[in-house]
Amino acid sequence: MANLDMGWCRSPLRQRSSKSSLVEAVRSICSKFQGVDIHAIVEKNKHMQEKIIRPSRFPFLAQPYPLARMALWLIIVLVAYASLTPFNFYLAAPSLAYEWVQAPLPRYIPLFDVTTNILGYLPFGFLMVFAVFPRLRKWQALLFSIFCGMILSGSLESLQAFLPRRISSQVDWYSNILGTLIGALFALPLRPAWLSGNMAERFRYTIFGKQQSFFLLVLLFPWAQIHPQNAWLGMGDLGIKALRISPYWSLPFNNATQELLITAVASSSLAALLLFATKTKAPQIRFILVVTGLTIALKVFASELQFGSNGMTIWWSISVGLGLGIGLLMLWFISHLTKVYLWWISFIGLIILLILVNTLPQDPYYLAQLEILPRGRLTNFNDLLKWISNTWPFLALFILMKEKNSVQT
């Protein structure tokens, strides 16, 4: 058998026929591809493979959403703080906690108060639907959100009965429940499957990757600038008079230089923080410019509500503009640094900002202008906004220390 096989292989007729058939096959293949751009076909196939492999949305898994739960707890804390500030409780009679339930409805109901109560609880109901997933879904999540809104609002209204400067009302309770219902109804048709592939989630993953804490920190940043400050971006003022340097003439610079210094340090620290927090492949500089623009727009809008049209730009000055320009220039210089250097620049910059804000004297002209300005609709929220402004730098330092070893690529 082996001899027969070897003879078949040595047969010149077989070798000739196999070679001729191979040549004919090659010629037929080449004739088919005459005039065809092989490189174009290869590139097209690569593009199609990338298009097929790349998912159009993030894969949906029936798992809890920690981002929604973190945001929900943050909303609860902010709502409780806004409802119970200034925390001067007067515990006289326990029966006061239930008198508002039996009290008659007022004859005059301000539309602004109703709208504020609805808007305040709208994110609570919206986030509750996603926070209870996958344990509760659809109408079960809706009913649970309404129930939690009733309990939270009722508890805060009962606690307000012990605050001399607060008035508990059924109108506020009904408005809060309505806001919870509207927020839950907005979230119900979206479903968590939509949340896994929506624009906000894709945006967060594209810019921040897996860093959810930095994403929440950036969301709080524009709100931290609404409360009146000694200098724009001068966050973290603890109000300790013993730390103040006084008077002004004991310093080698005036209040304009102080505004310039605080704004420059704050904007540079924020730029380094965002460069460290965002992914290297993300449009970092464009994103930082958008955050700065939105912060300025929100500051102007809130100042108009707080102090009227005459106080819209009281916080802006030439020194603030120069300080912001220095920060943007620093953004261009430090954008080429590694994550390690960016971490140190942001960390040290925030510490310097806290030292400047708490030690430099407050501008007397700025404080005098704030006293004569008319008070607007956001007066009741000033304490809450002040708390956000004072705690934001400390929260940023905590997150930086927690995420020191994380590097976004």
List keywords for this structure.
single chain; 409 residues; mainly alpha; disordered N terminus
Structure characterization notes:
The chain is mainly alpha-helical and 409 residues long. The chain folds into 2 domains: 66-197, no CATH class; 209-402, no CATH class. Helix content is 68%, strand content 0%. The chain is built from 17 helices and no strands. α11 (212-224) packs antiparallel against α17 and α12 (255-277) runs parallel beside α14 (318-334). It is flat, with a radius of gyration of 32 Å. The termini are far apart. 29% of the residues are buried. The model is unreliable at 1-16 and 50-60 (pLDDT under 50).
Q: What is the helix fraction of residues, given as a range?
A: 55-70%
Unreliable residue runs = 1-16, 50-60
Chain oligomer state:
single chain
What is the overall silhouette?
flat
Find the structural class using helix and strand composition.
mainly alpha
Major sheet attributes = none
Number of DSSP strands?
A: 0
Measured on Cα atoms, how large is the radius of gyration? 32 Å
Q: What is the terminal separation in angstroms?
A: 64 Å
Work out the count of structural domains.
2
Instruction: Give the mean pLDDT.
Output: 77
Number of helices: 17
Order of SSEs: HHHHHHHHHHHHHHHHH
Strand content: under 5%
